[in-house]
Design brief:
Largest sheet: 4 strands, mixed
Number of domains: 1
Strand content: 15-25%
Number of strands: 7
Oligomer: single chain
Radius of gyration: 19 Å
CATH class: Alpha Beta
Mean pLDDT: 83
């Protein structure tokens, strides 16, 4: 038994079943420039940036590769250093870790699978070999919720 297709409503360009519920990541990624920091940025400054931007991750370029670090990495660095204020001025390049890059046409569902296997849980979207965007769990969830 088949169900009839929903007629387009005056407010939608297509019926709901025609909408792509698994879009390519290029349509849901966050801009990279918003969260990119220089590798020489100090841990204290990076913590401030994470809080001001209301983001979980920052990215930096070290040795020609994009690397990532999260707020949790910054805090762990300070905690593990003990009572040593000098840890606040360490550069983020010491903490940033390599990240997986994906193409812009990868589907959101596949990216979500990859995020679950990543540490840190972040993907960098590359276009023509150049970093162009960022995917993390919050970005994927916002896109699923429709508030991208």
């Amino acid at each position: 038994m088949s169900t009839p297709a929903t007629a387009p409503s005056p407010t939608r360009a297509a019926p709901p079943e025609a909408l792509d519920d698994d879009p390519p990541v290029r349509l849901v990624m966050s801009p990279l420039d918003r969260v990119e920091v220089p590798p020489t940025m100090r841990v204290a400054t990076a913590l401030d940036r994470v809080r001001r931007l209301d983001t979980d991750h920052l990215v930096t370029r070290c040795g020609g590769r994009v690397r990532a670090l999260g707020e949790v990495d910054l805090l762990r660095h300070l905690r593990d250093g003990g009572a040593r204020p000098a840890r606040m001025v360490d550069p983020v390049s010491e903490l940033a870790r390599p990240v997986t890059t994906v193409g812009p046409e990868m589907r959101r569902s596949r990216a979500a699978e990859l995020l679950l296997a990543q540490d840190p849980p972040i993907l960098v979207v590359t276009v023509d070999g150049a970093p162009a965007g960022l995917l993390d769990a919050a970005t994927v969830l916002r896109s699923v919720a429709g508030s991208r």
